[in-house]
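Changelog excerpt

This revision adds worked examples to the README so contributors can see how folded entries look when concatenated. The first example is reproduced verbatim below.
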Amino acid sequence: MASPRFSLHRTSALAVALLVLLGLSVLAAGSYAAEEEKGILADLISRALSTPASRVSIGAIDGALSADATVRDLKIADRDGVWLSVNRVRIVWRRLALLQRRLEIDQLDIDQMDMPRRPVPAEAPVSGEDQPLLPELPLRVDIKQFTLARADFGQPVLGVASSFSTGGNAKLGPPSEGLQLFLDAQRLDRPATLNVRLNLVPQTQRLDLMVNLDEPAGGIISELGNIPGRPPVKLKINGSGVLDAFNAKLVFDAGEGIGANGDATVNREGAGRRLGFNLAAEASGMLPDVAAPVFAGTTRLTGAVLFADDGAVSIQGINLAAAAARLDIAGALSAAQIADIRVSAQNTPNTEGGALAKDVRIKRFAFDAHIAGPLDAPEIASTLDVEDARLPSVSLGRLEANLTMTPNGSIANTSTLLNLSADARVKGLELENPALAQAVGREARFTARGVSTTRGVIDFQTFELKSETLSAGFKGRAGRAELRGRLEVSAPDLARFGAVAGLALKGEATLKADLEGTPRSNRFTAQIDAAADRFATGITPVDGLYGGALTLAGGVRLDADGGFGFSDLRLTGPNASARVDGAVTPKSADLTALLRIPELSKADKRATGRAEIAAHVTGALAQPDATATISLRDASLLGRPVPRLDVVAEATNLRDAPDAHLRLDGEIDRKPARGAVHIARPKEGGLVIDGADIAIGSVTAQGGVALDPAHFAAGQFSLHAKNLDDLSALALEKLSGSLDAEVSLAHADTRQDAAIKANAEKIGGFGLGLDRLAADLALTDVYRHPIVSGSLAADEARFGGQAISRVRLNAKGGADASDIALSAAARGFNLDMRAKVVAADPVRLEIAKFEATRGGDRIALAQPAAIVIRDGGADFRSLTLSLDGGRVTIDGRAGSKLDLKALFRAIPLSAGDVFSPGLGLSGTLEGEATIGGAPAAPTGPYRFRISQLAAPQTRNAGLPPIDVDASGRLEGTRTTLEATLKVGQSGALRVSGSAPLAASGPLDLGLKGNLDAGVANRSLSTAGRRVTGAIAVEGRLTGTAQQPSASGSATMSNGAFEDAILGVRLTAIHARLVAQGDHVTIENASAVTRNGGAITAGGSIRLDPAGGFPGDIHVRGQNAQLVRSSLATAELNFDINLSGPLVRDPRVGGRIDILSLDIPIPDRLPGSLQPLPGTRHIDPTPTAAARLAIAAKAKRGRGAAAFNAALDLTIDVPGRIRVHGRGLNAQLGGNLRLTGTLAQPDPVGAFHLISGDLRLLTSDLDFTRANLTFAGDLSPELDFLATTQAGGASVSVAITGDPSDPQFVFTSSPDMPQDEILSRLLFGAPSGQLSPTQALALAQAAAIYSGGNDALEGLRRSLGLGTASQSNNPLSKFLGDRVSLGVHTGATAAETGVGMNITIYKQLKARGVIDATGNVSVGVGAEHEW
């Protein structure tokens, strides 16, 4: 684009420059010849309009020194040609008036001026361009009449092509005369007018002003203002009066929502004048959608400014108030021209969360600026503060910025310099595009320090941009006319830019570039020095050649004329090097490129040898030609020798009509490889591939095809391959099988015919397979009246893990129709179709049968249907499909435009298994859709309802069936959605917004609803857990389906959690999670334990599934009783931090203080009480079945844990740990450091005995060792040892194992059997000397400490103390079958004793018991077995 300063200021000065001709002639005293005068004039014009690339030509000058001068055929051109021409300029004036410093022009006429475009900017600064254009003007200027008969402007100049004529007069004189302007202009191509009347007389201080503009729709003002709809525009300004009492009114109208009206006054107030104005405007209609709501309704501009007679100015207040923003200006300018002015702008909250516009919300926006100091050398300091801003494509948490500018002199002097200082910081940055968000990061800093000229050229000492992913800096000079300096960029982690590049980038990179250029003309050069370490792209061949250490060095340039070039630019990697050198310009091209690969195996292990790719571009920028060669030497491909292989391409006119000849020559696997082909794209359109003659081993391909601009094809092509393995080397894939195929294409006028013959056997390669193919098909008049004849048979086709055992297509063509039969079978799937193609006008496809089945599911045509093919589309008339009792009906048309209506009635979702086995959906679909628009951008409303929706994922999670009620509208590439999801009786969620129809588009969905937390109990209850509470969800989902970005919150209130097995019970659970972008923040989370303790949590999680959802969560507990069960009861203080990939291998660190830990050792049942071997559960309840499944899974063992946290915990005991039960009573203390992983913890330290003893009935033992350690699964392990002297022996008791199932081991010195040890320990005597009472006590001890110990079980059996149901007491047998006597053992004395059972009659029995305490009980009862 042209510089406005050049094209407007200098162009308008041309006429004035011509007027100076006479003054120059007078100064020359008439002594110059005509040619010299013409040279002076040409030199003046050249100075006014020149750039290094501009040319000025004048056809003729008549009467250069007379009072009536004419300039003819004035033309100004730049490097792109003439941009301004004037056919004739005539000036009638009074030459001698210049001696009195007056310019008097009687007549100034311009006949025709043409300006088709703006001039091309100068590539470099123009010498003297900032000097005054003309010498000092005379004291008086009087133009009595001027006319411009016609001026034609091209569209690039004013936005629309336009033609004008104008005329008027002007006078500028001393204060007594003032300024007068009379101007009338009208468009010649449209009815638009502009009238200006201006009269200002300083001596009388009177001002009269009138401006009247009336322009129709599509005019220049609406185009320049970019007013939507380009409406008609009317503007009226009227003002009149002396400057002590002046009034003016303005009216502007540009259609609905765009307009302004108001007034301004100037009145005398004491020793000064007061300017007041009040303007009301409607501006929302001319603003972009994103900004329009900020200025919705009426925007008002008001103000008052006091101008003192001594030159001082007081800005009492200038205020701009809009619907969602406000601007205020206040301050003063002293008589000495010292400024103190403040400017502030801020948002005006119009919602609870701040200022809201369409797709924009800003919680806080504040801009402040202070202008202080002399007016011609002011110091400017400004700040900007933005908080919680959300825009359509970006949001940020906080932006803080400041800028100061301090001049070292008057800004009116071009030599003055301005010291600049700028800083900015962004936090919480979130981009809608996930790839850019990952590349940019969430925080960024900007710093700039420099010195600027008044022309805007800045010398930067510091210019830095730093983010989480990038650091960039520039030092040097920058401006529109000049760029010179060094740019340095570093990226420590290229993986953050992988999504932007579409590659799996890795490594780090640095770049240094010396820059030079002229930005305003788009001319740049750069000398580059870049390097990357540990570089990778995820593309195996590229990484093999360039992975690791990579360097890029050389020169790059971009020319102002669109040309470009490279100066020895080299890309060097460990195993390849590339070089580009040369240039392409509008006049010529000479560019070479060379890639060398010394060893191909570095790119692909299936290849060896060396390769080279060379290219040479010639011609010119507009029509480049090129040659390229790919060469392989001493190579092998897939183990096949390739001593030489060359591919040569010669192409011409690459931009407009590329035409290329390719040749192949070499040897592959000791077989010749030869070939040639011609490829062209004619300028008028279409494609030509002909002259193909290729032979590689047994494989030959010949023929060609031409596709005309109307897409009709003609030609023949054949492929014969006795053994496709001959192509394996080139494909780098083992191929097999044989193939013979011929394709013929012909057309005449609008008729297109095609014939295909193919036979193949044992085809294999690239994961595809085909045992047999036989095809012989002929198609005539394909586009108008198609007739199909022939057959196709395929057996055992394999692709994508799927197998189709059989495909049969038979077509019988007649004069007017073709009968088609299609059948297929694959792994339980069967397809059968019968149809007729009727070659009528229009063509009809009459479907008699369509049926697809898999197992018990079936999709079939409910009734015969006809599809009409016409105008490139298809008409459907009540096409009805039956899906397992449901129906889909389609009516309408599909083609370049869609007009379809679909009805869905009682569709079982299980029918989806027909085409996707194992999909496993259940539920019923009802709905309808009306679809219009284009196939690539459908439009129209839809609604559907799904009852009792369930999927394998929801079933596994224990969720109840879901009811979905949804509606929306297709809108091109997107769809709107309003849906309600009811989750059983547990609440509902509402989803609204829009989503892309393609997976790659941006999401914009809102989610709101309430759920009962108990919805999770169906899955939790199998493990003995239960949760309650209310969950409120409100949020928004953006980003893409692959990389979603969330915002909003989820709140849980009045929650509770209970684990019956561990005894965990949490109440008063309250939590709030807030999502912003790809981060979820735990704003607060708290719960109360059963003893009144407290648990709190906070932190954040990043929504990155591939990264394991990395985050940082802090959990604190105070006096929290987390466990209360038969295994243990614990009260803790803790401070734990979880960081890293939270669902994979996070780090768990922190401190746990055990306030109290109570570990009871339970009194257990006899060790003989075990489930009967071979017990089988018949028809278990769902809960029992789930528990049995868990037990079976545990029995089978577990694989590697998906979640394996790294541990770094310190466990201390400021309180106590108590272990008690079965006579054991011990208190422990100490500390523990827990490292390793959750799967393999590594405890360092243990808990040791503080005090304790062991009482075995009548004996007391002292502990010599007591440790509490932790096993691999963090369950406590006992390690206790107690000793005493008893019965002449030294006795030791070891207690080890799990507290819930401890092992008691008795040893002695001298060594004795364990039953003897127990007898001496309890009674100080051998077991053979025990009394009956002591024997009962010994039995009681055996029951308590047996725990499955074989030695103590033997003691019980030796005493005849079996279980109640399995007594071996000889006395019970002696009394007969009706009377039984037995000794019962239990965990306490009251449970141990002698019992007698007497059978009175069948199931009627009497029973008596005497326990070890002497208590007696008698009873009568009945028994019945079933």
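The second example, added in the same revision:
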Amino acid sequence: MDPNNGVITIKSTEGQFFDRELYEKHYLTVEARDNIGEGNRNTVPLIITIQDVNDEIPTFLQRKYETRLLENRRTFETVLQVEARDADVNGTRNSEIFYDIIDGEFRPNFTIDSKSGIVKLRGPIDFEKLTLSHNKKKTSVAQISLIIQATDGGNPPLSSNVPVIIYVEDQNDFAPRFERFSYETAIMENLEPGTPTMTVKAVDLDGSAPNNLVYYRIIDGALDKFVIGSDTGTISIANGASLDPDLSDPKRLNYLLTIAALDGGIGDQQLSSNCIVNISIIDVNNKSPVFNEMQTVYIKENTAVGTYVFKLMATDSDNDATLRYFFDSEMSEAKNENGVIIKQQEYDYMQAFDLNANDGLIRVVKILDREKIETLKIGVVVEDIASVNGKQVAMTTLNFIIEDENDNNPKFQKPFYRRSVMENSQIGSNILNVVATDADKNKSLIYELEGPEEILNLVHLDAVSGEILVQEKIDHEIFEWVNFTVRAIDSGVPQRTSLVDVFIQVIDENDNQPYFITEFQNLSIYENQPIGTQIAVIEADDADSGDYGKITFLLDRLSSHGKFSIDPDTGVLKIADKIDREQKSSYMIVIEIWDNYQFGAASGESRNAFKQFYIKILDENDQTPVIEFPSQKEPSCISITEFHDIKEIVTPIRASDADDPTSPNGQVRFDLRGGTGADMFYIKQTDPWNANVFARHKLNKKYGNYSLNIDIRDLGNPPRSTDLKLDICVQDFNDHAPFFVSPINNYTIRIAENATVGQVITQVVAKDEDVGLNALIKYRLKHDLFGNYKSFMIDEHSGLITLKVVLNREKQKLYEIRVEAYDQGIPKELSSDLDLIIYVHSVNNYEPSFLVQSISVNFTEHVQPGIEKRKLPDTVDRDEVDDLDDDPTTVCYFIIYGNDDELFYLDRATHILSVRKELDREKKQNYSLIIKATENCLEPPMPLNVSSIEINRITSSKLRKAKSETNRFTELLNLGPNDLDVENYDELMAGSDSLIADDPTLVKVVVLIQDINDNPPKFTKKVFTGGVSTSADFGTEIMKLKASDPDVGVNAKLSFFQVGKTLRTLAEGLDTIKDPSFIIEKDTGSVKLNFDPQKEMKGYFDFTVIVKDKDGFNDTAHVYIYLLREDQRVKFVLRQQSFELRERIDQFREHFSNITKAIVNVDDFKVHENKDGTVDRTKTDLYLHLVNKNDNSIIEVSEVLRLVDQNIEKLDVLFKEFNVLDTQASEALVLQAEFGNAQMIIWLVMINLAMGALLIIVITLCLSQRTNYRRELKAARVNSYVPTDTGKIAAAAAARVPNTNKHSTEGSNPIWLKAYENEWFKNDDSYSQTSSTGHDSLDENVLVNNDYDESKLADENFIKTISTSKEFNGLHTQNNLIKHLNMYQHIEKLTNGTIIAKKLETTEL
């Protein structure tokens, strides 16, 4: 800006200050000053706006747009909309954007909205036509690429492009089609299960898997007889199935199968088609005949000869069977009536029947005698004589029963029967039993009565048993004898009968009751009548005569209370004792009358009756009123507060009169006769015995003591009276009495009989809601009549009750005391009482004990808390039961260990265990709780921890000796983890079985969480890789898929499957391989080879696997399997046994893969074999191959070795950890020569010349270096044995020079001291090799030390001193010398890609 004229110009266009997209406006402040810049000043803001030009190209929001399109759909799954932004001024042509599709093979099928950028379809896309040229791999998704251009409206316009990829997904729009609609075949019925019968085939025209994969199913008609290969369509006989038509019901000679071909569509998209297969069954005569069900044949003993009695029938399911029937005497048997077997020699029963061999008819040819044989069992045989497969027979037995004829009459046991019966015998009483027998086979008899109807109505005869009973009451006065006839009838045809006479005498008895003639029942007399006064005369009679009609009167003394008497002969009722109405106002007496009392009362032959008489005692005024309240024995002042409501009762007055309350003699009247409070109080009578005292007016500020003189008299004539002086104390307001909060009322306290004086029994606590002195509470024991309070004392301030005297349980077991809590209210304290029962029990030698040390309960995971409940077992108490104990002491359960998270709740009284929080078995499978049983329910026991473990249980035996103390649990020592041996401490924390064994009041409850299937399986990794050699055999196991499921049991049983098709990449020679290329074992996850590899095959396979549990929860993973040659594997030699290496191989693979940036696959484990052919089981040869992650190609061995060399420092830790000794090619590589003979000769000559020159140079260097290293060579010849002084061992070891012949390995030299320092090359098995004399090649030049004594070499103590000294700690010796380490170098590669195996060796100290 020009300071004089204010013209603002652009100073510089450099930088980005004039880029409108970065700085749209510049805000300046311009200042003007007068007086040439020295005077007053003023400022003004200046805003400079940068105008836009079209210098920004449209920019898409995404680098690439992708969407998914389902075949035959007219819309994308999600709206395909491209969007670009232009940084130029919004709303101008420079920022207005237009869209267009500018490139793409299928561009005509799409349109784009030039404004919104929404891409739409012109029509549906047919995936099958699309895949003819763009989906040669037959995948389920084909790709369409478009280029969309966004152009702005500026001048000139600017534009940018973005690729759009549309993934067209194949839809299942073709159903499988069978080659034929129906198939027919015929097979033999005796084909073995698994035999193929025929094959059906269908094809699917869909463009990709799984839509075009065809699976076969039998829809209908197989009846479990046939199965079909889901992939091949081959119909075979099912395992365990039989095609025998005779075994099917109904008989089936052909099967009409409906076969369905289903494609790989999912859910509703799956399509299918059906075909019909007709399979006919051809019969084979291969079955034995079978008898029809045999029935028992019944034959009369007099059946005529020639009668057909039975026809044998057998069936044979073969079509051309010819049957013949025979008797088999070996299987026959006969028995008589008593079950005795009859031999055929005694009675030839086989000759009694004849059998027709053709039709099986059996007829009688001899008369049968039932008395000789009653049951007959005959063996029969049927044979199919048309059998072509050997003899086909069936055998069975036919049972005959010879029936008897009725030819004997029934016979009674006696010629007649005679009995007697008492008259009035109970109905149903037994009189006698008649019994008859029948000699015939059928011995069933029935009995009937015959005689006059009036006689037969009195008795009942049981038709089956012959028992005669009383049916109606028999009166001796009507029937003296009851006579009738009994008929016995058998069940034969025709029936046979017999008769017998029965005579019954009826005996008389006393059967008439005495009865009262007197009709009145109510009597009344005055009290105080003289003894002997007659009250009334009672009259009675009896219908019997003689002694049975003589009446005797008796009075019940219990009902008369001894106040009355009656004459036994005349029935005169008199007063026998003084009668006082106030003691009893009425009597309900019972008078009895007896007949034949003198002779029949003792023998039970008398009859009696009784009657109640009510005697009312009339009252006389002989009692003075008695004041019941307030008490006159302990007069006290009636206390009320100065705020007493005049409507409320000051005190009730209650009086009573022992005279009749219904008469004036027993009713009283209350009259106020004076007193200091007569003008302040008045009396209001409420009924004849009660009155209330009320205040006449308010008593505010009139507190003090007042008295009332009250006259109480009855209403009798003359009246009787008594006086009452009533004291009323008006006090300051104290309206809250103390109340007890602990313990509860009538609480029983148990105390041992050996308790000491001063021992605390309990502590009572009371509260008072008043304040000040009115709320100051003190305690005291109330006196009782038995003096129980004298045995205890209470602190009046704390409420602590202690023992005052020594207890003697034999004299007194129960003490009932009453504790009073009173406040210090003025003028009268308020108080409340608490009744306590103190029970003195014998010393409790045993606490409640569990019968078991541990139990287990089950809870189900994820069940709502409180639903499941478990009742814990009860305890037993081995103490002697006290006879005075009403109820057993309540035993409470407490959780003292294992419930830190408050997961469980135990009801201490009901012993029911439940869950507070939802359990998860996958977080914890089980819980261990320790439950303590105790009779002390008020004080929960302390939780169990390490500080409450007995020290003697840890350091000595696990079994505790029996104790007699009351509570063993309280005798534990306080110990911490630092006080215990670590091993024992861990043992205690890990389990509680030993503690449970020590303390029977404890039980260990193991809570087992039952599993539900709530977790899906998971593969251990998402990608499994492996390799298979082209020399592998068919069925070789390549790898084992590993997955885990947190569930257990059947919920964790996993099944492995392959899903989708196996893809082959970089494939050569794999066209002949049929799917599936690999078989996955369902249960183990083992992946096995399903083809024969050939050397010319190359490439790798990849496919998807799925693991499922029983409920369908699943997980997927990808499997890559590479084909490799034997020379593409690398061998690692490790000092580990194979089983150790297998456990940690995944760690080795992961670490090695991270360093080399390649996929590492393990091929094999082998026990190491040395060069001499011996086996070294301490080493393992590990075979690996590496795969390039970028192109999935096998990395050659030379490249692998180069990667190892390149990353040797990074691999150092890994190789040390796994003791890697060597790395080399699995097969030694041979240098391949492609030269001619002449060229070979030239090269050999040149190599010989070069080697000769090199030899000369080496010899020259050795001679020159000999002088320089003379001192080192001399040091190498120093005595290798140490001085005798063990204190100089360290110095001797330090003087030793490495790399001498004595301590060298192959290829080493003492002058080359630059060792390759890498500990993974160390080999613990490289020992120094000594000669038979014990000296090496330098021992001839040993300079003998004067201090050395050869005898010490044989001294075991000397050798032991050296081997155990600190300076030699960790070194192992051979012949008591030092063991040294060796290493082997890698295989190095040669130039031009051709390598040979070369072994480099170096030694390291």
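Reviewer comment on example two: The two ends are 82 Å apart (CA to CA). The CA atoms of residues 461 and 867 lie 65 Å apart.
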